[in-house]
Amino acid sequence: MSPSAINTATSLFFCTFVPLQPLSVILGKKVGQSTYLGIIGLGWGILTLSHSWVKNGKQLIAGAATIAIALATPFSLAKAPGQSWFLSAAVKEFAERRMVLDSAANLDSRFKLSRRDMQEALVDWKLWTILPFNVLASIAPQGFTIFMPIVIKGLGYSGPTANLMTVPPYVVGAVLLLLFAHSSDRFRERTLHILVGITLVLVGLIMAFSLPLASPAARYGGIIVLLSGTFIAAPITVAWLSGNTPEPGKRAVVLAINGWGNLGGIVGSELFLARYGPDYIWPLKVTTGLIAVTFVGYACYYFELKA
C-alpha cells in the first residue's frame, strides 16, 4: 500500500473503532499519538547514532526498555483522582466531586446510555456545527508528516541526523499544547485559545509555501511554527464539549461523534501526493485555505456564544 492509502485506511479505522471505546481511551488516542511522536524519533536517532556499540544488541535494548516501561506503568497510575500525584489539591477535590455527580446522575437508570442521550446528542446543533471545523483543523498534521522529510533533505541532513531533526517541531508542539491547556483551564476560556493555535498553524503554512526551496532553514522554521499550534485545537475542543455536557450518557455520545475529526487524515493524505513534490505548493495553499475556513468557523462560533 502507498503511504496515502495506509493513512486513509488508518483514519477510517479510527473513525469507526474509536466511538466504541471508553472515554479515557478516546482521549488518549486522539491527543497522545501525534503529540509525542517526536520522542520516538529522538529515541531512534540516539540508537542509530550509537550503532557502533549497540549494533548487535539494539533490538534487545529497545525491547528491554519497552518491557520495563510496560511493567512500571501500572504502579505509576493513580487508583482514584485523590491519589493522582500530578494533580494539585484543588484539582483532586474538583475531580472527585465531578465523578460523584456523574455517578449520582446514573443511580436511577438501568442503562448508562439511554435513547434520550443519543437523541439529544444527535439534534445538538452546536456539536454538528463544530464537527466540520474540527475535521479541517486536523488536516495540517498530515501535511507536516509528508512535507517534513523534504525540508530535512533540503537542509543537507540524512540518516540518523535527519531523524533527530524531526524532534524539535514535536517538542515545541507538545510544550505549547501543555501551556495552552493549562491556560485554558486556568482562565476558563476555550475558543480564544483555539483561535490562537489555529493562527500559529496559518502562519506556519504561509511560511512553508511562500519561502523558496533555496531557503530550507527558513522553511524548517515555518514547520516549527506550524507544529507549535497544530495540536492545540483538538484537545481543547474535547474539553470544551465535555465540560459543557453535564449528562454522562450524552457526553459519551458527543465525544464519540467528535472523534470523527480523524476524517481530516483522509483529506490530508489525498492532498499531499507525491506528484505535487518536491515543493508541495498547491497542497500547502489548499490546506491554508481550509485552515482559514476553520478559523472563521471557530470565530463565528465564539461570537454566536457571546451574543
From TrEMBL:
Query: How does this protein lie in the membrane?
Result: Multi-pass membrane protein
Q: Does the keyword RNA-binding apply?
A: no
Primary location group? membrane
What are the protein's GO molecular function terms?
transmembrane transporter activity
Report the subcellular localization: Membrane
Alphabetized, the UniProt keywords read: Membrane, Transmembrane, Transmembrane helix, Transport
Domain of life of the organism in this record? Eukaryota
Q: Which GO terms describe its cellular component?
A: membrane
InterPro entries from the UniProt entry: MFS_trans_sf (IPR036259)
Task: Please give the start and end residues of each transmembrane region.
Answer: 6-28, 35-54, 60-78, 125-152, 164-182, 194-214, 220-241, 253-274, 280-303
Name under which the protein is recorded: Major facilitator superfamily transporter
